[in-house]
Amino acid sequence: MKNYFLTLLIGIICLISCKENTETTKFQSKTNPKALKLDKLYSELYDKGNFNGSVLVAENGNVIFEKSYGIADEQTNRKLNDSTIFELASVSKQFTAMGIVQLVKEGKLSYEDDITKYIPELNDYKEITIKNLLNHTGGLPDYMELADKNWDKSKIATNDDILKLFNQVKPKKLFEPNEKWDYSNTGYLILATIIERVSGQKFGQYLHEKIFKPLDMKNTFVYRRRFQPKEIQNYANGYIYSDSLQKKILPDEMGKDFYVVFLDGIVGDGMVNSNPKDLLKWDRTLYGNNLINDQDRNLIFSSTMTKDSSQTDYGFGWMIDSTKTYGKIASHSGGWAGYISYIERNLDNDKTIIILQNNSLSSTEIPIKNTRRILYNQEVEKPIKLDNEILKSYAGKYLTDTQKEKEIAFENDKLYVVMSTDYKMELVPVSKTKFIVDGWSPEVSYTFILNDNGKVEKYRVIQEAQGIDKTANRIK
Predict the structure, then answer these.
(1) Can you spell out the DSSP letters for 78-144?
(2) For residues 371 and 449, is the Cβ–Cβ distance under 8 A?
(3) Within a 13 Å sphere around the CA of 466, how many CA atoms are in the beta-carbon half?
(4) Choice among 43, 54, 90, 199 that is catalytic
């Protein structure tokens, strides 16, 4: 669910017949060169244990590649297929944002409304607007850290529970509204609560009536498997890796005090579930006028500027990137409870990439960049190989200028930025000291800076499209 920068294809065709027990093919033309290259890209990752999920790629709304690789349920060995449903994690945010857009269109609220108009529990945080929450410029601290320190983890927290915590603990704002951009799960939790209080409906019911049902998204819904469990056909379980047990496990096996378990009652920043077919219907609708008009579209897919004239490169639930090669791109990623999700819309060229995975392991890869390169008839980039001793020298703990400790980890012959207990971002080497975060758009790079003795003293992280250029000093 968290995304701090904001913010992923089996050998040649002759091998497919011997893999029928683990792979499902769904692309029509065996002679389509892009489909063949995509299949090769993802199959190689699957064969190495680096990909387990479903992929759909379309051009001008026409599916050119659709395939599933691997297992949906490790206990029964049930396979993934083209209709399997995954939790979307932070890709859910675009649906929460659309729910707000619909209420604005109905005249039931305004983007400039102060959030305290609907959430009196937050009276200590006046002057934050609904629009601030939509584009992550509100300045509210992360509710996950607040809950980790203050919530009774024997219970599953809901949105109202978190709002009560804010009212009781009163954590300080990170900054004043619109001063900066900082990705906020808290903001989208609040937006979901506003939707419920204004519409008089439960969040899932509202999205169903306003978005999923009208778009015939029959396999898309809000679902909290621990808070309100129910039987869902063709559902992919999300898996993480247990170092102690040396195997893949369900997050629930970590116990009730594991954060994805006790935060399972939260909606808005996550908990929408779907599959690639339904997400393509969503993608096509966003080009038309059934849900939104051109004015809405411009708001949803445009970057916002902060008070210091910095671009956020974030619209309403979408990361926004403008590139010379690919034109304007709207995308979002997500990671939560063993799921990794990604959707990308190339707005100027009408190309769509949808990737859903149900394994969040240290070896998991998300080959967004190479998927895009194949779509544009470019050669697939091969990362360089660095000696493990070099990679190990970069691993350690680093301290940012905001006094937050960050970890760079060496695992399975690869380097990772540790984002949470079950989510790590792979660093792909492009030179001896410079690495690219695998799959992220806009691109994020980490460069390790050495002292005169050749020892690592800091790293520099850059995301040029968002104006991010920060360093962190090594502390151990």
Answers:
(1) EEP-TT-BEE-GGGGHHHHHHHHHHHHHTTS--TT-BGGGT-GGGGGGTT-BHHHHHTT-S-PPPHH
(2) no
(3) 27
(4) 90
**Ramachandran assignment for 264, one of left (phi > 0), alpha (psi -120 to 50 degrees), beta (any other):** alpha
Q: Tokens 């980039």 label which residue?
A: 381
Taking the C-alpha atoms of residue 130 and residue 193, their distance in angstroms, rounded to an integer, is 12
d(CA 286, CA 290): 8
Q: Rounded distance, CA 5 to CA 19, Å? A: 36
| Residue 90 annotated as catalytic | yes
Q: Give tens-digit pLDDT for 398-457.
A: 999 888 899 999 998 999 999 876 678 899 998 899 998 886 756 788 999 999 989 999
What is the amino acid identity at position 108? K
Residue found by looking up tokens 């990737």 in the block = 355
3-state secondary structure of 450: strand
Pairing mode of beta strands 221-222, 272-274: antiparallel
Closest CA to 346 of 60, 33, 109: 60
Q: What is the pLDDT of residues 372-408, one digit of tens each?
A: 999 999 988 777 889 999 999 999 999 998 888 999 9
Q: pTM value?
A: 0.81
State residue 301 phi and psi, 5-degree precision.
-110, 30
Give just the sign of the alpha carbon dihedral 105, 115, 344, 338: negative
Residue 323 has pLDDT above 90, yes or no: no
Q: Write the burial class of residue 249 (CB in 10 Å: 0-12 exposed, 13-18 middle, 19+ buried).
A: middle
